[in-house]
UniProtKB/TrEMBL annotation, chain B:
Name assigned to this protein: Sulfite oxidase-like oxidoreductase
Highest rank taxon of the organism: Bacteria
Upper lineage: Bacteria, Bacillati, Actinomycetota, Actinomycetes, Propionibacteriales
Region annotation Disordered: where it falls in the sequence: 1-28
Pfam families given in the database record: Oxidored_molyb
Domain Oxidoreductase molybdopterin-binding: 37-182
PANTHER family hit by this protein: OXIDOREDUCTASE MOLYBDOPTERIN-BINDING DOMAIN-CONTAINING PROTEIN (PTHR43032:SF4), PROTEIN-METHIONINE-SULFOXIDE REDUCTASE (PTHR43032)
Organism of this sequence: Nocardioides deserti
Amino acid sequence: MSADRSIDDVVPRETTWTTGTIITKEQPTPDQVRLRLHVDDRQHHDPGQHYVVRLRAPDDYTAQRSYSVASDDDDPLVELLVERFPDGEVSGHLADVAEVGDVLEVRGPIGRWFRWDTRTPAVCLVGGTGVVPAVSMLRTARRLGRRDLLRVAAVGRSPEHLPYAAELARAGALVAYTRHDDGDRARGVATVDELAPLAAAAEVAFVCGSPRFVALATPLLIEAGVDPTTIRVEQFGATG
Amino acid sequence: MPVTRGFFRKRAQGPEGRIPPGQYDTGSGWPVLTAEATPRIDPADWSITVDGLVEEPTTWTWDEAHRLPSATYSGDIHCVTTWTKLDMVFRGISVDDLLAAARPRPEARFVLAHSSTGYTTNLPLEDVTGGKAWVVWEAEGKPLTPEHGGPARLLVPHLYFWKSAKWVSRLELLAEDQQGFWERNGYHDRGDPWREQRYQGDA
């Protein structure tokens, strides 16, 4: 893989629909579902990429949504973290109905831009469920012995609302809670002073979260010294 | 492909013939999706250029563009992230009028739409001619907000909405198709929602 400095360097790759079997299903909180899938004819993925999950009704009606991959490419299973939205058509099914052994239609990996090449010094500012691609980046960096290349700041309301909070903290990420005092740090979004040292060596920056989070996080990174042209954004909404 | 155990259609079907396969009616919401930092562009600094394989490369400022005949699109838009929004009203100018002034050369067959952010998206020329594409600065009677591509965006509503480049600044006419941002990212070169052309590899 090359270090894509510009979208012009990115080479598209075709993907096709395949099937994935749910091997484990956990609900760390009522609003989060962690699925680990065995994917047939699986392709390699880079940290930051996502999969599409498609559900098919008996009348051939379909609904599909994209979910970031949390796992490292080296993991025998593909791990997806699904946030359950109120009335979420797909997330509701995955949370309430899906069981271990169920077969889902999946397609991936998708996304050739929001991915870390594992070689370029990078900073992630991620919020809520948006931490998932950063988890994949951290797992990959750990396997490759390149933890020094990747700095992560994760923002959540509280430990209960931040997926992978413990794993992120163990990996040395800055974890900022906006509605929870954790003793070391007063509540609040990551500050420019906290971000500046994380961003100092970064040549690429990844921002992932809700549109509201992205609108807040992007100017913060720029204020912390990040070149706006190096910022790659992934945002998602409550589309269920 | 297998039926998903325990999954059934729960949503209302939506008006007949208006919701493409795999899409759902988002109702009153208009989700925002971008891959870059949202730029704040003063209309005084905005312009639209048509160049490449044309006889008369032309640039219109904000005021000049507003002196072209006003054009309105009323209808539906479809985002590849699976929402469809019905009965939108956009106002701006027709891409046909821009092309009529710039006069495409016979060998021009594709368009690469550029945004001032560096975003690009590719389209066959025939998908932006014949009353199918606009440059718009108003949505639902209000100025287009920066999140939705304001001050002006391309509008090609018969294709997935990533083709409707936000913050559009340039239409470059080409003889050969040249992939844009999402297309290099893995999304389809044409993006017809009725054929579900979402990703590279879809027929």
